[in-house]
Design a protein that fits this description.
The chain is mostly beta strands. The strands form 5 sheets. A 6-stranded antiparallel β-barrel has the order 12-13-14-20-16-15. It has a 6-stranded antiparallel β-barrel with strand order 3-6-7-11-10-8. The N terminus is likely disordered.
Length: 291
């Protein structure tokens, strides 16, 4: 690939990544996002170890067998208000994913649309505040994996259709167990759900106490999880069984600008009632081909 084509591709990927940052998600009722160390759910804490963040290779500075994340705070990079939750945490990820086989990640289809995105991103485990809140991260080689191939991908837009991708990694993941997936039937209407991923590119959050809002479409269902752009590709897990029911793919508006046009303008999280807004759409595991 010549340098002009490479620069053009990187520019397009960067612009697309920015679009993903503000893809529609929001808060319903109480904000249920928690850092790993804030959660008391031992099952979800364990399952979070098998979730990964999609990060640009150029934001991972390699030094021997370690990688240091280069990322600005959420406030600096996206312009959220200083009093927003997690405003000072780094915004390092672009999408989320989770392990379904020793060398395979499942994510949203719009996170892996072409091999260019496969090559220019890594999948990073433990981008998470496990013991305390911090604003810098260094990873070892067993936490960072590169995309080798897109095994299967669907993104049937426009419209609320299939949206998933199965990514082959460059080698088997060390010391982590693939998540269990629903193998038959569909999610119960009264299920309680937990989403694990990277809202707005932040360190991994466990977002619990979500409920099913719509469960009739054969391709996807809707929930009221407090999820954001960056959560695309997150595992949507049955809180009782620990089984993955689907992949978080789209939803309602994330932010609204306040003091628009003034020097202190900033973005504030959109907040709605539990049953207001469009809800968050989840690709059913049964819709994923090639598992």
């Amino acid at each position: 690939m010549n340098k002009i084509a490479l620069v053009g591709l990187l520019f397009n990927l960067s612009a697309y990544a920015l679009d993903l940052d503000v893809q529609t998600r929001s808060i319903y009722g109480v904000d249920n996002r928690r850092d790993i160390f804030e959660s008391s759910d031992n099952l979800m804490i364990e399952l979070s170890r098998s979730t990964a963040a999609q990060i640009f290779n150029y934001n991972l500075i390699q030094n021997g067998d370690t990688y240091t994340l280069k990322a600005d705070s959420l406030q600096k990079s996206l312009g959220v208000c200083s009093n927003e939750r997690f405003a000072n945490q780094p915004k390092g990820a672009r999408c989320s994913g989770f392990l379904i086989a020793p060398d395979k990640i499942l994510t949203a289809g719009h996170c892996e649309t072409m091999m260019g995105e496969c090559w220019y991103f890594s999948w990073v485990f433990d981008y998470a505040n496990t013991t305390e809140e911090k604003n810098s991260f260094t990873f070892n080689k067993d936490q960072v994996y590169h995309c080798k191939n897109i095994i299967k991908q669907e993104m049937n837009y426009p419209g609320n259709q299939n949206d998933y991708a199965i990514v082959e990694l460059d080698r088997p993941v060390i010391g982590r167990t693939p998540l269990k997936l629903r193998t038959e039937g569909k999610i119960p209407d009264d299920a309680t759900l937990t989403v694990i991923g990277n809202p707005v590119g932040l360190p991994t959050k466990i977002t619990d106490e979500a409920i099913v809002r719509e469960n009739t479409n054969p391709i996807f269902f809707k929930i009221n999880s407090d999820t954001f752009g960056g959560n695309s590709g997150s595992a949507v897990i049955n809180s009782k069984t620990g089984i993955v029911e689907g992949i978080l793919v789209r939803g309602d508006d994330d932010f609204v600008k306040i003091n628009d046009g003034k020097p202190d303008s900033c973005l504030a999280t959109v907040k709605r009632g539990e049953f207001e807004g469009k809800g968050e759409s989840v690709t059913r595991i049964s819709s994923v081909q090639g598992l």
